[in-house]
Amino acid sequence: MGRVHKFLELQLWVVYFFAVQAIFALQKIYRTLLRIDRIPEGHVRLCSIVHRKKRDVEEIARGMDFLSVHNSFVPTSLLDGSHWTLYCLTKNTAYFVYLPKPVLWYNSQRCPFVYVDYFKEALLVAEAPREEFEKLADELADRPQADTIFYTNTARCGSTLLAKMLHNEGKSHCVAEPYPIPCLTIGYAEGYLTKEDVTSLLPRVITILRKDVPADQVFILKAESSGVRLVEFTDNIPQFRNIFSFRKDGIDSCERMLKREEIGDVLTTLHLYLPRLTLWIFGYLAGHYLKNESRFLMPCIWFHDLIHNTEQLLREIFRNIGIPEETALEAMKWKGEDSQKGTFLSKEALQHIEIPPMTAEELTEMRQYAEAMEIPVDTLIKAEKP
């Protein structure tokens, strides 16, 4: 019954999706009649939020997450305010949200998945044409910028814990998983965005996301799992470096995460017909790290070291990214806590899920995947004893 219920929920979401598209079409007609369909140069469209809904809060951020109505046109410079941040973007439009608290309040210690807080707490939405978005970012880029660490990773590698440790008031500011990043990675992977689009948009997205961080602090931008796809585009971004973390033999943990809801079974069934759906889960991303290894500030940060050699690892990371090494002792207070407590990925939410052992056929398949992705076999499964 669980799978049937989730399948019905998915169908209802499809109905809602098309209903929203119809409302957007009517809005466009209404705006055309009132001659407010075009946003004046130097301005953005300010909208009041009437309703907000996502099928799953974890899904990629989109403009349609908010059913909103036109309020007024305001100068683009308004988006430089301390309560405004970039929510998501398309090929032609950037969506900003106005938050009840300053953007810097939403750090990785308070918000392990900041896109959830942005979605739930947004008070207003601003639509910026791409030209205005780029112009704003270029103006902000002329100001002093914080040194930035792009922290990419894969699922279940302790990245949420490390992100909490990387945030140190007055020294470093870490934000965890703002969704403009997957808008670029997934848009590029699916052919919606071109290589030229990503090359142009990524530096500007970074500038917008770090606009509120003091220039004398280190800004750590923790991406979600697909973020490593963007590393090849970061060579010419000023004051920008990369780090990466991974967990060997993490398949069971990833499977447990995917099976947290019955919808996971529905989606894995769809995978038989749409295999590209699961490209982003695990080893594929590790392959991207290996192919771009020279672009990273330091060697891969391993889950095992984060758990068992915490202080030594933190000191090495802090030394490399420019945070005083002694800060590691304070950061270690997060060790032992459930870094995802209260979220959909907490230990409590996942502990009841059982994972069956792999069959011989599945183990053979994993070895074939590793060979195809050009990664070590023990990236996916435990190394065989000689």
Automatic annotation (TrEMBL):
Q: Does the keyword Transmembrane apply?
A: yes
Membrane-spanning residues where?
A: 12-30
Q: Is Ribonucleoprotein among this UniProt entry's keywords?
A: no
Q: Which InterPro entries match?
A: P-loop_NTPase
Q: Which residues does UniProt call coiled coil?
A: none
Which superkingdom heads the taxonomic lineage of this protein's source?
A: Eukaryota
Q: Which UniProt keywords apply?
A: Membrane, Transmembrane, Transmembrane helix
Name used for this protein in its record: Sulfotransferase
